[in-house]
Amino acid sequence: MRDEHFWSDLTLDLRRYCGEKPWSAQFLFSAIRQAYIHPGLIAIIVYRYGRWTLRNRIPVVRELFTLVYALLFTFVRLILHIEIPRSVVIGPGLRIDHFGGIIINNQVSIGANLTMTHGVIIGQSDTGIPILRDNVGIGIGAKIIGGIVLEDGVIVGAGAVVTKSFPAYAIVAGVPAKLLRIRDPEIRHDFYDVAK
């Protein structure tokens, strides 16, 4: 398990939405506005809080914080239709756009700067549990299933069903997903620039 820091991870998540100087008044105002525009940000905050509750070692306090987490998780699951259990390991810089219909298996391991949109499922099969490295982007309605590895910078197209591993900077799409091309790692792309 990676060494997690609640505030630094949450700050990097929020910076993917806000971009301003962290924890300034403008940053906080922007974060509130972005939570309204992108309700997936609420799910991220609840997820990070849930990870923090796992680190608390004082029994009574841990149980109280866990109860609060359970209520918040239920809200996110029922209202926003996003299910990211606190047992999932996700690096900092998580971004969820166009919330709803997102389910992540509770044993998945994901690197930093994951970007995903609605309808994404990352799940287990009889072959195992997926591992996603850093800077992975997942399009609308994509499914990532089984004991596969998506290396750094992989972009998964909308509606793709990924059941095999892909190398770094691959762009994949289709059912089942196939390699379309390998993008140049020297050129920094936003997920939406590449997915067009």
What keywords describe this structure?
alpha/beta; UDP N-Acetylglucosamine Acyltransferase, domain 1
Plain-language structure description:
It is a single chain. By secondary structure, the chain is an alpha/beta fold. It has one domain: 3 Solenoid (UDP N-Acetylglucosamine Acyltransferase, domain 1). The protein has five helices and 15 strands. The chain has helices at residues 6-17, 25-37, 40-55, 59-80, 191-195, and strands at 82-83, 89-90, 95-96, 102-104, 109-110, 115-116, 121-123, 131-132, 137-138, 143-145, 149-150, 155-156, 161-162, 170-173, 178-182. Strands 3-6-9-12-14-15 form a six-stranded mixed beta sheet. A hairpin with a 4-residue loop joins strand 14 and strand 15. Helix 3 (40-55) runs antiparallel to helix 4. It is globular, with a radius of gyration of 17 Å. The termini are far apart. The model has no long low-confidence stretch (mean pLDDT 90).
